[in-house]
Give the backbone structure.
Amino acid sequence: MRLREKTESIPKPLVEIGGKPILWHLMKIYAHFGFDDFILCLGYKGELIQEFCKQVSGWNVTPVDTGQETNTGGRLKRVQAHVTSPTFFTTYADGLADIDLPGLLAFHRQQGTVGTMTCVKPWTHFGLVDIGANRRVTGYREKPRLDSWVNGGFFVFEQRIFDYIKDNEVLEREPLDRLTREGNLSAYQFNRFWVCMDTYKDTQNLNKLWDTEQAEWRVWNDDAEHGLAPATGPRHRV
């Protein structure tokens, strides 16, 4: 709803940054590190994403219709049969970062947990006010970086995650809560560039960064419009 100016005609993952869907940018990040085997959980206007997939070359892309009203956990549960790797990445289609994916994967394996969540400290859209005695403003910070960590997506999961998801649950509620209570969810604390395209203004800012060559999420070096040449070695599920 917050991107209604764009998403009445297309799904959010196809909103363009620099003339290409944000989904393409996200997939380029993964493919840069050799993770080029994708499963896309389709919902709202998923047929348009299927058309996008037909244009992609060099990557192995499996679009799966997981239902228009399905919750995040339910979407993941419905692609279980397509996930053949014992360990796999999962993320949202609206967040970009200059994240070191091999480093994230190594951290996850070192932790030995069922799941790892990338945690970030985003910049708030609001000015924060400190109020003291007699209701006097004692401090004001215009759109500072939050002190608290938030869920930045870019998960790594073991196959056992599917045992923690029941029916059509919201991934971020019951399943992650079950992992948390067991001590089975690790936090990968990420302090570099991360942004979520949540509003039309976010889209404008991302386009500005791309147009001025300040797109820090562009970790790839090639100029290919679609996929990269297949990486050597085994494929990795995303």
